[in-house]
Design a protein that fits this description.
The protein is an alpha+beta fold. The chain has 8 helices and 4 strands. Strands 1, 2, 3 and 4 form a 4-stranded antiparallel beta sheet that branches. It is found in: Membrane; Endosome.
Length: 379
């Protein structure tokens, strides 16, 4: 049977209330005498009743032992605490024919954080001791390390010196060997390169011969291809192109002849028109020249009278030009209270007319008898 004895808020030897739970494995003894005792104790009871009797016995011993121990003894040495409970409770349950197979402490705790504080204090002490131990160990280690480094440097200096001497001798010997090896290597490399150059030259000559042969074959193939392409072009391009070119040439020549004929016709037309216009101009010029000739002869024959006739012919035109602005005037009103004054103004304008004509044309109208007579009459 498995039992779980539990004691709550049991004061220890220091008066700290703890709650402790455990686990116990018990069984009924099989020896004849002890089995008879068990039968006498539990005859007529079921398994649960037996568990309750044994559980109460274990809890009573657990409670009594808790009161004799300190918290530190209970918490830090649980195995010893469980062993003590088992040893104290074993005789009592044995007299009931029950054997305790095992008893262990499952849990220990309190409600006032005593165990937590104890753990913190212990932890602080342990941490302090650990820090002190670490510091002392580091100090000792540093001292020992420095001593070891000094010894190491001394040994290293001596070893480096010997190594440097050996290395120098080795390098000298190595340089001598290397020089000899390099000479032999260079000779061998030169011979190898010369032989390689000869072989490469032979290979290159053979490659050139192969390339020449391939090129000849390629040239022959290209020549055949050129002939084939030429024939194909002649059949597909050149002959149709020549036919098209011939057709276009014929059309162009026909168009050219047409344009030439049209140009010649147009030129002939222009020439005929020009000849006709020239004849008209020549006839008009001849007529005008004849007219001018006749005029000149008439002017020369009649002298001042002819000039006077020209002036008199031009006077209406001059008067028209002078009076042209007045043509745009709808009405002219002359304001004067004296009719004789208007008449005098008109007479004055007529009297000034010969002087104006003389200034414009150089002809003196006053010398003409008819004009002179009219002017005198006005005066």
């Amino acid at each position: 049977m498995t039992l779980q004895p539990r004691c709550e808020d049991v004061e220890t030897a220091e008066g700290v209330a703890l709650t402790v739970t455990g686990v116990a494995q018990v069984k009924i003894m099989t020896e004849k005498e002890l089995l008879a005792v068990a039968c006498e104790q539990f005859l007529g009871k079921n398994v649960q009743d037996i568990k309750n009797v044994v559980l109460q016995t274990l809890e009573g011993h657990l409670r009594s032992i808790l009161g004799t121990l300190t918290v530190e003894q209970i918490y830090q040495d649980r195995d010893q605490f469980a062993k003590l409970v088992r040893e104290v409770a074993a005789p009592d349950v044995g007299r009931m024919g029950i054997e305790i197979l095992s008893f262990t402490i499952k849990d220990v705790y309190d409600k006032v954080d005593y165990l937590s504080s104890l753990g913190k204090t212990q932890t602080a002490v342990v941490q302090r001791d650990a820090d002190i131990g670490v510091a002392e160990a580091e100090r000792d280690a540093g001292i020992r390390e420095a001593e070891c480094k000094k010894e190491m440097l001394d040994v290293k200096f001596m070893a480096d010196t010997k190594i440097a001497d050996s290395k120098r001798a080795f390098e000298l010997q190595k340089s001598a060997f290397s020089e000899e090896v390099n000479i032999k290597t260079a000779e061998a490399q030169l011979a190898y390169e010369l032989q390689g150059a000869r072989e490469q030259q032979k290979i290159r000559q053979e490659e050139i011969e192969i390339e020449v042969i391939q090129r000849k074959k390629q040239i022959a193939v290209e020549a055949q291809e050129i002939l084939r392409t030429d024939k194909e072009l002649i059949a597909t391009v050149r002959r149709p192109a020549e036919a098209e070119a011939h057709r276009i040439q014929q059309i162009a020549e026909g168009e050219k002849v047409k344009q030439v004929l049209l140009a010649q016709a147009e030129a002939e037309k222009i020439r005929k028109l020009g000849e006709a216009e020239a004849a008209v101009i020549e006839a008009m010029g001849t007529a005008e020249a004849e007219r001018m000739k006749l005029k000149a002869e008439a002017y020369q024959k009649y002298g001042d009278a002819a000039k006077m006739a020209l002036v008199l012919e031009a006077l209406p035109q001059i008067a028209a030009k002078i009076a042209a602005p007045l043509a745009r005037v709808d009405e002219i009103v002359v304001l004067s209270g004296d009719n004789s004054k208007v008449t005098s103004e008109v007479n004055r304008l007529l009297a000034e007319l010969p002087a104006s004509v003389h200034a414009l044309t150089g002809v003196d109208l006053s010398k003409i008898p008819l004009i002179k007579k009219a002017t005198g009459a006005q005066a």
